[in-house]
Each structure stands twice: as C-alpha cells, then as structure tokens.
C-alpha cells in the first residue's frame, strides 16, 4: 500500500532479504508502476500511468455477463491500454475483493477471463 493505492508486488519481492527489490522501489518512486487499485473506488476516478491507465466506469454492454449474480453490482474498473494495447476489465465487490477479470489483446489471440467461484468470509 502507498497512500490510498494498492500495488501488486509480483516479481518485486526479495524473498531472501524479506524486502522490496531495489528495482521495484526505483520503479515505484519514478512512477514506472501503476497501482492496481486506488480507493475510494468511485465512478470517474482515474489513476495509473501511460502504460496502464485505470478508470472506474459503468460496465460496457455484454461485458461482465460471466459474473455470478451476487456480484452484479460490483464496481467496474477498466484499462483501455493495458501494457501494449490490451483491454482489461476488473470487477471489485466491497467486502469481497476482485470478483472477476477479463483481458483481451487487440490484434492477437491473447485473451482470458477469470471469475470468483466461491467466497467464504
């Protein structure tokens, strides 16, 4: 966490030293990393960088139809330039977390959909 934003560490963790890597810290400080979430999640809110800009917006038609009915009111977070031109949709349910993701890279066959199947608080 940094401020009101959450970042994925992924490859940025040095397990031996139990700390962030020097490269990850540098990227974080120079704006090279885009936060995954910035709270509060409200329609119109934007964050990120040129490579991965995020915005909270109403879901486009037919997007998110794969979500379980109990998550139909999940907040839709969207990036129309995820990395090198992909679109990524993420749905976040308060009290649960990420309940679905859909990624498509325009011009290639790279695509995936993930959804939360079970949640036990």
What proportion of the residues form beta strands (DSSP E)? 35-45%
Based on secondary structure, the structural category is mainly beta
Q: What profile does the largest beta sheet have?
A: 6 strands, antiparallel
Order of strands, widest sheet = 5-6-7-8-9-10
Task: Describe the model.
A hairpin with a 4-residue loop joins β2 and β3. This protein is 7% helix and 37% strand. Strands 5-6-7-8-9-10 form a six-stranded antiparallel β-sheet, with no helix packed on it. Strands 1-4 form a two-stranded antiparallel ribbon. The chain is built from one helix and ten strands, in the order βββαβββββββ. The chain is mainly β. It has one domain.
Note the main attributes of this structure.
7% helix, two-stranded antiparallel ribbon, 121 residues, six-stranded antiparallel beta sheet, 10 strands
In short:
The chain is mainly beta and 121 residues long. The protein is built from one helix and ten strands.
Show the helix and strand layout.
Layout: E1 5-6, E2 13-14, E3 19-20, H1 22-29, E4 37-38, E5 46-48, E6 53-56, E7 75-82, E8 86-93, E9 97-105, E10 111-115
Antiparallel strand pairs: 1-4, 2-3, 5-6, 6-7, 7-8, 8-9, 9-10
